[in-house]
Amino acid sequence: MNIRIPITKPFLQPIEEYRAYVTDICEREWLTNDGPLVQQPEERLQECLGVENLLYVSNGTTALQFDIESLKLECEIITPPFSYIATTSSIVWEGCWPVFADIDPGSLNLDPSLFEESAIPAISAIPTTHTIGNPCDISSILKVAKKHNLKVKFDAPHCFGTTYMGESVYGFGDISTTSFHTTKVFQTVEGGAVITNDHEYFSRMDYMHNFGRYGPVKYRGVGINGKNSEFHAVMGLCNLKHANEILTVRKRQSHFYDRLLRDLNTRKPDVLPDSVVNHSHSPLIFESGSAVIESQRRLEKANVQTRGLFFSKPGKAGVCGTINNLRMQRTGPKSTLPSTLPRASAG
Ligand SMILES: Cc1ncc(COP(=O)(O)O)c(C=O)c1O
Fold it and tell me: Which domains does the chain have, with CATH numbers?
């Protein structure tokens, strides 16, 4: 396919800005392992997002694994099936059980009213996604979590610049995670972050992302390699200088699409009155699956690239069981939920 319009294009700053940093790195011959540049995006992002602790890690998927480890989650974890595969696969990878609660067809976000009373005793946490940059009903989720003593973690890779009640969404819940993958509004080629206001959680993740190491030869617990390099950090430092411009252009492009596509038989996801979205995407909800397929066919014919990202059918099923084929891949603790729960739809 000769692609005329790709699914996504990374923001790239003028090459001279990047080149100056790269020359510096090469002269220093310090490419990774806690170099002088890798901490700078952390400080600047903390300031720019108004959050207390932000740890820059290798990608958004390891960030999800670190938060499960740091919160010491076990057993069942409520999560929406409508998200990227990493939201659920990280739960399974960590030996826990994903328990699917359905989304609200209006906002496409987890619907807290559906899981408020069901299956709660077995659940240890609610990790949920702010679907394609649209904040979920954070207040209601936090209320349910408080009532049942559950941890809340938000998977928020599309939320750079998204706010809820006037603050960055990254400041809510026990931990938020994000991705700085090249497809995201703010990108460092590969990369991600864990964000928390809790110093204990933060300190655990800090050790974990560097093999558990402190000092040259001492280790605290089991860690893994979740570090990032000087080159990735520099891409972030350069792009951060253009953050306002990136967000402004996204907004303008999104409004342009809205005007062009307003006669289609589609609707946009509902946004809560207290939320401001960052226009990371321009989502449209079609009336049927066949309408989506037909639109994809026509776009492809015009060399406009399309790709499915989140798969699942919104409905009103309430709390469901785990997806079978994911469960096959890891042997976690035995689920304590009744086997008669409905199965979530995976496609
Ligand atoms: C909702 C969600 N969670 C997690 C990830 C994983 O992020 P990464 O690609 O940086 O590992 C993605 C990637 O797009 C995502 O959309």
Answer: 15-240+311-327 (3.40.640.10)
